[in-house]
Design a protein that fits this description.
With 268 residues, the chain is α/β, with parallel strands linked by helices. It is globular and about 55 Å long. GO terms for molecular function: transferase activity.
Amino acid sequence: MAQLRIFSYLPNPRVWKATIAARFCGVDVEVRGAPSKELRDWLWDYDARPLGGQERTSLSSLARTGRVGLTGAKLFKTDAFLEAQPFGNVPAAFGRDGRVGIFESNSIMRTVARLGEATFPLYGRDAYEASRIDSFLDVSLVFARDTQIYLLALSDGTVDAPIHERAKQAFAIYASGLEQALSNQGKSLVGDGITLADICFAAELALFMNEHGRVAQLRERGLNRILHGGIENDYPKVFAHFARLVEHEHFSPDLKPYVAKLLAKAAA
């Protein structure tokens, strides 16, 4: 039995925060899920699985109305799922017996680091390093919020200039701080080795790169890509660090094909 089970839409770079950490720490993580639109045909539970044709009728009492990302969809969530996951969202992680739920991708990633701390100190070597790592993770939440709003608006065709501007400002603030940190630290954000701060950064930037696949929507509204062709010149240390991480043996199984696909869309 896996030490941690995660249920989510896939592919999802925020889930990869946990799987990347697991490779460093030797933690057994199981991921279950499917593309976002298919999750309306799944049972949302610790034992998440696709529903059979007749089950949608027999389990109709479990139907709940979806919100973020699946707004208005009929989703089948068990009472046990909602007890463990009070906000009812994915990614949703569970301990061994399914009773303890962990939600929010940074917290799920922290769980992996704590389970495997004896193998690799991803969460820092002392209280000060751990707190500095937390600082980067907290800042990432602000960026992630605007990222989610922006990418969802691009996906459903509701993006407008104010949403674009908020995301642009959020990226500039986030990237500027990371650029400064890397100027002082070298090849990692905290200390002299890879930590949760680096993993979170790589996953969030990879997710934001989905903008490359929505150029047509931006053009229709007279907007430009935030990750424009010269962005690497604006934040050279940030993008050099990202490139190093994508090639790293513990990052590349998840991130490398995903990033390559998005960069191909940008080039097109």
